[in-house]
Structures are given as structure tokens and as C-alpha cells.
Amino acid sequence: MSASHDWPHYKSTVTVVDVLDAGACAEGVVKFVERNRQIAGPTAAHVANEHISCAANADSDGYGYGYGDGDGDGDGDGDGDGYGYSDGDGYGDE
């Protein structure tokens, strides 16, 4: 069975959970909530915030870029065993 994944769609409303799930740190989210007194809101009102635009899938130009190239090379030492035999005749003085 293969997994099916939905294309990430723009979220017009973002919650603090969305922002945390997108990777923002908890301390920063707490500061945002204390300053803005809200835990959810319209993306358009805070789209300049990189964490909110990321959580809303609003941080892309709509294009995909990719490049791949590969090359391989090998080098190494080796040793081996061999087999051999010899036979010889000789002569000499008596």
C-alpha cells in the first residue's frame, strides 16, 4: 500500500499549534501570544512573520527547483594468491 500525501494548501487562518508544528520555538510563540493577545488569526494579517507564513504554506513563489548530478570513482589496494610450478634440467662436469 502506498502513502498518499495532499499537496500543501494555503491556510487562510493559522493557530499557534500550526506555527509550533511548522517548527517555531515555544518561547517565541508565547511572546507572540502575549503581545498580540490571540492564539489564532488570519494569515494575511501576519504574513510578514516568517513562522506564520511557513505554517500557512504561504512562503513560496509557487515554483519548484531541483538539480541532481552524480559521479563516482573508486581507488583501492589489493592482494592475491597465485599458483605456479617449475621443472628444470641441468648439466654439469663430472
Strand order of the largest sheet: 1-2
The tally of helices reads 3
What is the mean predicted local confidence, pLDDT?
Answer: 81
* First and last CA, distance: 90 Å
Task: Please provide the ordered H/E string of secondary-structure elements.
Answer: EHHEH
Structural topology:
Blueprint: E1 13-15, H1 16-21, H2 26-36, E2 40-42, H3 50-55
Brief digest:
The protein has 94 residues and is α+β, with helices and mostly antiparallel strands. The chain is built from 3 helices and 2 strands; from the N terminus they run βααβα. It has a domain at 13-55.
How would you characterize this protein structure?
With 94 residues, the chain is of the alpha+beta class. The protein has a domain at 13-55. It is 24% helix and 6% strand. The chain contains 3 helices and 2 strands; from the N terminus they run βααβα. Strands 1-2 form a two-stranded antiparallel ribbon. The longest helix is centred in the first third of the chain and has 11 residues, at 26-36. It is rod-shaped, with a radius of gyration of 34 Å. It starts with 12 loop residues before the first strand and ends in a 39-residue tail after the last helix.
Descriptive keywords:
94 residues, alpha+beta, two-stranded antiparallel sheet, 3 helices
